[in-house]
Amino acid sequence: MNKRKNLNSLYNHLVSQEFKIQIIELLEKKNILFPPHEKNEGFFLKIKKKIKNIKNFGFELSMISSDGGFIKPHTDGPDKLISFVIPIVDDDNFSKIENSGTKILIPTDEQFKYNYVNKTVPFEATETVREIPFSRNQIFLFLKTHNSLHSVGPMKKLNSKNIMRKSINFFIYKN
User: Fold this and answer.
1) Which of helix, strand or coil describes residue 103?
2) How many distinct structural domains can be found in the chain?
3) CB under 8 Å to 7, separation ≥6 — which residues?
4) Which residues pair with 167 in a beta bridge?
5) Domain check: are 38 and 103 in the same one?
């Protein structure tokens, strides 16, 4: 990574205090509010403190084939606080691929309503609430909760061309 100036620059930005503050401000703008007093140290204040002091970041490069590729419904690992996805789209036709976005799901089966340990859930036991398109010039994030269920695919390729769904994923882990 040190040999790649653009990756090194991205990494330095993501671990900066400025970026952490931007994330907190973004969450607060979306009404994910943190308690104003430390006496009421609740879930979100703990996250806010962790984000400000965190040094534990993880990165992952992801590639999923448009020829049937998928990620099963899951809630992310219990060691994660926030997961970020940066799409890398190098084919303008990618947005036309069916099921290529990230689906936000709810379970339709009671046994999957509480899933803090990140057990995968069968596709047929979920219902799509929203699909986040996988597009250029965006970043999206998930707060890890017991019901932050999401998935990708299964995708269906366009014509005979197999296009890869590529992304840089990074995570803020619990200390």
Assistant:
1) strand
2) 2
3) 1
4) 62, 87
5) no
